[in-house]
Specification:
The complex is a heterodimer of chains A (about 325) and B (about 325). Chain A has about 325 residues and is an alpha/beta fold. Chain A contains 12 helices and 12 strands. In chain A, strands 6-7-8-3-9-10-12-11 form an 8-stranded mixed sheet, sandwiched between helices. A 4-stranded antiparallel sheet of chain A has the order 2-1-4-5. In chain A, a hairpin with a 2-residue loop joins strand 4 and strand 5 (about 75). In chain A, helix 5 (about 130-145) packs across helix 7 (about 165-175). Chain B has one domain (about 5-325): P-loop containing nucleotide triphosphate hydrolases (Rossmann fold, 3-Layer(aba) Sandwich), CATH 3.40.50.300. Chain B has helices at about 55-60, 85-95, 110-120, 130-140, 160-170, 190-205, 215-225, 240-245, 250-260, 265-270, 300-305; strands at about 5-15, 30-40, 45-50, 70-75, 80, 95-100, 175-180, 210-215, 225-230, 235-240, 310-315, 315-320. Classes of the chains: A alpha/beta (about 325), B alpha/beta (about 325). Chains A and B meet through helix 8, helix 9, helix 10 and helix 11 of A and helix 6, helix 7, helix 8, helix 9 and helix 10 of B.
Chain lengths: ~325, ~325
């Protein structure tokens, strides 16, 4: 049984301009101890999909459909009798069984509380530990994430830490209750490459040691290649392709995935000057998304059917699926 | 054929005084500390480094947004600190800048046309409004926007399109040299490649020289002829792009390149990275010696006491004692 299963998630936002369809009928699974990368550009719906799962949507967000099962429990808002009982359930799960790491290490921590208070809080809330025990555990976690002289650092405030160190603190907070799943939303985007390498190495080490499943939301394919077992590609609120790391990088099926891979400058051993092949145009407006495939306006292989009919999911292997008419025998010859 | 040098920077130092209060010791941020290099006509020099290494300050000093503490910048053979009157105005026209944040660098209350025409008016390049407008339409087409965008406001455009407007504005006065300060780091991957290809196309057509500042090393390798690597205000290594990228010499360049995530799962997962310990030291009153010594695995006693001078190795300059003859 998968650890997390999301089926037909659809989330919209009510804005003065109309309804923004941020997440449109997305389904995926995550197994225990697995690292899933969710890749997409800004506005592709990757973050909002995770907020839907965590129950952290902004006030104007509406979950229209979807069923979420985590660790054998149904945690979809729509299946609870009222908002209150849902919120109570999610308070129990968030920070305990599911932890989140956010993008910006500068704003995540409370600037007026000592690191100690912030590390101990989840432990006091979710376990029966005494303050003394919680403090011991906090020091242990700081050692685990590689913060030198934790006894001294634990008494300091966030501003006394650099960006990389703050991200380590946030990871330590995420780990306090031995979560089964960590959702990391662009955890290294705000960091420099050398610090990013340190943090990625740390996440990789921790998940191997603790067998925690990780969902890594990112736009950086390099980060995905380094860490992830499986990769899901999102575009225009849709999950357009999902597969193992090797399937996505070496046998991409969706034209958007192919485009994404060919517009990054390769930094392999090859010195030959390759021309960058950008994807023309820009992502669709989710106020009025195209009726058919969201990628149709930018796709070089678009057919007539792509414009009007949403492609169904085609499976290539047990793990590799994509939503594209090109792979559907019914669309043959429809130029 | 060797192109002639368009920009020559010698022993440039840009310092900021950040002393607080009057009785405290003076605190100086040495943002750029003794940097020398040349840019040739039609060439792209990439400058890479982590945040706080002084790369943006370097770019801003070159376009005279900051005054240097010491050293000289020569543009087309003339020391820019001595320029006055018409010569200064000509320099301002010839050297343009493209900024990092396409949301902050365009005035939201001006239309695209007004934004692009403003520099033309300041420099009096065209006599009539009709000529200016014709040129603006032409520029919009060059950067891949539509002529009818001329009456729209920046808020109606996406990040990538705004960066194109910024490029059109820089081109409006027919410059010779453009400082691109992280022009793509605020953009999505698929849009980055569009902007890079556009910059390369314009460069060929107009014989422009670029100083391309970025922290994305693989994109810099792609667009640059030569690359300079900065650390804590110092130029650690500078040389032909492929040499620096594929055969780095300076221990910092080696570590920096090793830290780039590779977009290939087999290589990325197999690769043993050099993980640098610690972080960049504070640039306020930095210690003597090599700025990288505290994080360098090859550092010796001497590196902490003496500051190395750039050493010529083939086509490259490397600021490291390891390469002394």
């Amino acid at each position: 049984m998968p650890l997390l299963k999301a089926e037909h998630l659809t989330t919209s936002f009510i804005t003065p301009q109309g309804k923004v369809q941020a997440v449109r009928d997305v389904s995926f699974e995550l197994n225990e101890g697995e690292v899933l990368g969710i890749v997409g550009e800004s506005g592709s719906g990757k973050s909002q999909m995770m907020y839907t799962i965590m129950g952290l949507l902004a006030d104007n967000g509406v979950i229209e459909s979807g069923k979420i099962t985590f660790d054998g429990e149904d945690i979809s808002l729509l299946d609870f009798p009222d908002r209150k009982s849902y919120d109570r359930k999610m308070l129990e799960i968030r920070g305990n069984k599911i932890a989140m790491i956010f993008q910006d290490p500068m704003t995540f921590l409370n600037p007026v509380l000592k690191i100690e208070t912030q590390l101990i809080e989840p432990l006091m809330n979710h376990t029966d530990m005494t303050r003394e025990q919680a403090r011991e555990r906090a020091l242990e976690l700081m050692r685990l994430v590689g913060i030198p002289s934790p006894e001294k650092r634990i008494k300091q405030y966030p501003f006394e830490f650099s960006g990389g160190m703050r991200q380590r603190i946030i990871i330590a907070i995420a780990l306090t209750c031995n979560p089964k799943l960590i959702i990391a939303d662009e955890p290294t985007t705000a960091l420099d490459v050398t610090i990013q390498a340190q943090v990625l190495e740390l996440i990789d080490k921790l998940r191997k040691e603790t067998n925690t499943a990780v969902i890594m939301i990112t736009h950086d394919l390099g980060v995905v290649a380094k860490l992830c077992d499986r990769v899901a590609i999102m575009y225009g609120g849709k999950m357009v392709e999902v597969g193992t790391d090797r399937e996505i990088f070496y046998q991409p099926a969706h034209p958007y995935t192919k485009g994404l891979l060919s517009c990054i400058a390769k930094s392999g051993a090859d010195e030959k000057e390759e021309e960058l092949k950008p994807i023309p145009g820009s992502p669709p407006d989710l106020l009025n998304p195209p009726k058919g495939c969201p990628f149709v306006d930018r796709c070089s292989k678009a057919m007539r059917v792509c414009k009007d009919v949403m492609p169904e999911v085609t499976s290539y292997t047990e793990t590799h699926r994509a939503r594209c008419w090109l792979n559907d025998p019914r669309a043959k010859g429809d130029e | 054929m060797e192109n002639k040098t368009i920009l020559k920077v010698s022993h440039l130092k840009t310092y900021f005084d950040v002393t607080k209060g009057i009785l405290t010791r003076r605190q100086i941020v040495k943002a750029v500390d003794d940097v020398s290099f040349e840019v040739r006509e039609g060439e792209t020099l990439g400058i890479v480094g982590e945040s706080g290494c002084g790369k943006s300050t370097l770019g801003r000093t070159i376009v005279k947004l900051y005054e240097p503490e010491a050293g000289t910048i020569e543009f087309e053979g003339k020391d820019i600190s001595k320029l006055k009157g018409n010569e200064l105005k000509a320099f301002r026209k010839n050297v343009q800048m493209i900024f990092q944040d396409p949301y902050a660098s365009l005035n939201p209350r001006m239309t695209v046309g007004e934004i692009i025409m403003e520099p033309m008016i300041i420099h009096g390049i065209y006599k009539t409004a009709a000529e200016r407008e014709a040129r603006t339409v032409e520029l919009l087409e060059i950067v891949g926007l539509k002529p009818d965008h001329i009456r729209r406001y920046p808020s109606e455009f996406s990040g990538g399109q705004r960066q194109r407007i910024g490029i059109a504005r820089a081109l409006a006065v027919n410059p010779r040299f453009i400082v691109c300060d992280e022009p793509i780091s605020a953009l999505d991957v698929s849009i980055q490649a569009q902007v890079i290809n556009l910059l390369e196309k314009i460069q060929k057509e107009m014989n422009l020289s670029y100083l391309f500042i970025a922290h994305d090393l693989s994109m810099v390798r792609h667009i640059s002829d030569r690359i300079g690597v900065m650390y804590l205000g110092h130029m650690m290594e500078i040389g032909p792009a492929n040499d620096v990228f594929y055969r780095p010499l300076h221990p910092y360049t080696i570590a920096l390149l090793s830290a780039i995530p590779i977009s290939d799962p087999d290589t990325a997962k197999a690769k043993n990275r050099i993980i640098l310990e610690g972080e960049i030291p504070s640039p306020i009153n930095p210690p003597g010696g090599c700025p990288f010594a505290s994080r360098c695995s090859k550092a010796t006693e001497r590196c902490f006491q003496q500051t190395p001078e750039p050493i010529q190795v083939g086509d490259r300059l490397v600021t490291c004692f390891l390469y002394e003859k």
